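Submission sheet (multi-component)
Chains listed below:
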Amino acid sequence: MQWDKAWPWISTVARLGLAAVFLISGGLKVGDLAESGRAVNAYKLMDYDTAKVVGAVQPFLEIAVGLLLLIGLAVRLSAAISALLLVVFIAGIISAWARGLQIDCGCFSKGGAVAGGDTTYGLDIARDVGFLLLAGVLLVKPRTRFSMDGLLMGER
Amino acid sequence: MSKSQRDRAAAKRIVEQQKAAERRRRVTIWTSVAVVGVLVIAGLIGWGVLSKQESSDAGKLTTPSVAVDEGTAFAFGTGKVTIDLYEDFMCPICNEFETSAADTIDSLITANTVTVRYHPVSILDRASNGTEYSTRAAGAGAAAAEGGKFREFHKVLYANQPEENSDGLTDAKIIELGKSVGLGDDFATAVNDKTYDSWATKVTETFSARGYTGTPTVVVNGKQLQGASGGVPTAADLSAAVTSAG
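Outcome: structure written.
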């Protein structure tokens, strides 16, 4: 019935929303890779040399995932990779929170240490869980409008 | 419709369904391969850009002859307690710390109690509209140290600290401030030529590699000093730490 017609549109909104999230977060970091490496280093989960590489690779991965979602190529796989990245980010924030680190998550910005009491871990996690829901919608209902998948499958 | 016609129509439908299923399968496989390929390439680009930046920085590195601690700091005083100060010239909290702790640090140096090592790091380059004030200021600090006036220059630069997210001070203004504390043409040349800017990057790398993430970071005899509830230490915190370390 009506839901069959509505799902592709709901999924399209989820796809474009998630694409914007990754394009913006990657775009904000890609201009200063040293900064991005320091943001990763602030989590104190790996030595600095590893953090530098992760910090340099991550913004490019985020932009790539954002572009793939934007054009709608292999939406289910792209959504699965998005979900994986988000789960890793959420785990990182929880671990920083649990260890009492005073850092900015570096999700959409600078990252690094912040003054005592200025952390926003709860909000950061809630926001990432929201993004995870968008990825979940796409995992269950990957068919969307205006997608490369649709074009290649010969829909419309 | 006869029975044979119906059979033929049904067979045709089955063939078409199979063809469509085959097409979906092929598209899924190839688009998945494309996605993985794109991600691998993106990761390699990030890695490549990082390596290129690092080798370019290493190629331009000029270490000031007066620098100590693996060439990443300038030392003052000869006391046996070591205070390491990691500060960014753009960082307002560093300025507050400098303002409140300057007298304490001066008297500890004069009393020959401590050796203070200044590490001018550049973690706030994003806060100067792309002019990379943190790096320029730290590089100028190295030039001032070569001219024998690091502490004087350091002080006047904090007294004239620009707002975060402004363009920062121009090189001309930095040179003018240097001259006001007695630095000469060599200083001006080093600032204009960005002689020590790659060195500022190296100091910042060393800072990060030591596990420090924010400025100001105050370290007394190798142990990071924290203020109340993990905040920035006060002058009193510093005095107390030096007393217990000495």
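Remark: Chain A has a mean pLDDT of 91.
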